[in-house]
Amino acid sequence: MDIPEATYHYHIKLMRQEDPDVEWKALILETFEQHKGRYGYRRIHAELRVQGHIINHKKVQRIMKNLGLKCVKFIRKSRYKSYKGTVGKVAKNLLNRRFRTPYSLQKLVTDVTEFKCTDDEKLYLSPIMDLYNGEIIGFSMSKRPSLDFVLDSLKQVLPIIQKRAEYRTTIHSDQGWHYQHNTWVRTLRQNRIFQSMSRKATCADNAAMENFFSLLKQEMYYGEQLISYETLQKKIKEYINYYNNVRIKQKLAGMSPVNYRKHASQLAA
């Protein structure tokens, strides 16, 4: 073989040794499959750290590469436009892209997005997010983007605001006709909630909600076959529960939105 004898015996010895990463491979594969392929190596590493395992992120990256584990993203544009001109009151942009807040329920964002279903049906989703921890605190779904459908998600969060908010709440949206409507504006005023709106045709003014829509569609909708309205409705409910309670965020110290809120409240107590 034209190699030194010592080198030959060294490689034979290595071949006879068990894989030192066999347990790590099993653990990483289990975590990857548990989250349905939605986690890349950074989030896998954070999840393992939360579980108490000590492992370098570069090792996680190498093992995932060797196992062929890759978080695959699908891109298929699907965007709902609710802007119909000035049909009511257009509020000032009070949020002004200041998406961070140390206080729960101080800054909320909302929007409407659409999904295609079988039988030429569509599903419309209206979530409301707390920028404190990125938690979806209320959401509604409908086959039509009506005013009542948007008001339904708002009515879900009003008791939460009244019970837990320490500071006056501001809710931010785009200039969609729902949010200019007198009923929406009056409901906010009656509950002492400030209204804020993005500038016209400026998605970045509501980037936090746009980012959630992107995650939602990439992780459970894009690249999949169209399904019925009822089945998609169930999948979205399951995903939002997963997003709130299980899916970790690195900016939340490796915790899910709900766990971060509970942890913060325990520290405050």
UniProtKB/TrEMBL annotation:
InterPro entries: HTH-like_dom, Integrase_cat-core, RNaseH-like_sf, RNaseH_sf, Transpos_IS3, Transposase_IS3/IS150/IS904. SUPFAM superfamilies: Ribonuclease H-like (SSF53098). One of its GO terms (biological process) is DNA integration. It holds the Pfam family rve_2. PROSITE patterns: INTEGRASE. Residues 98-265 form the Integrase catalytic domain. It comes from the Bacteria. Involved in the transposition of the insertion sequence. PANTHER family: TRANSPOSASE INSF FOR INSERTION SEQUENCE IS3B-RELATED, TRANSPOSASE INSO FOR INSERTION SEQUENCE ELEMENT IS911B-RELATED. This is IS3 family transposase. It comes from Lysinibacillus composti.
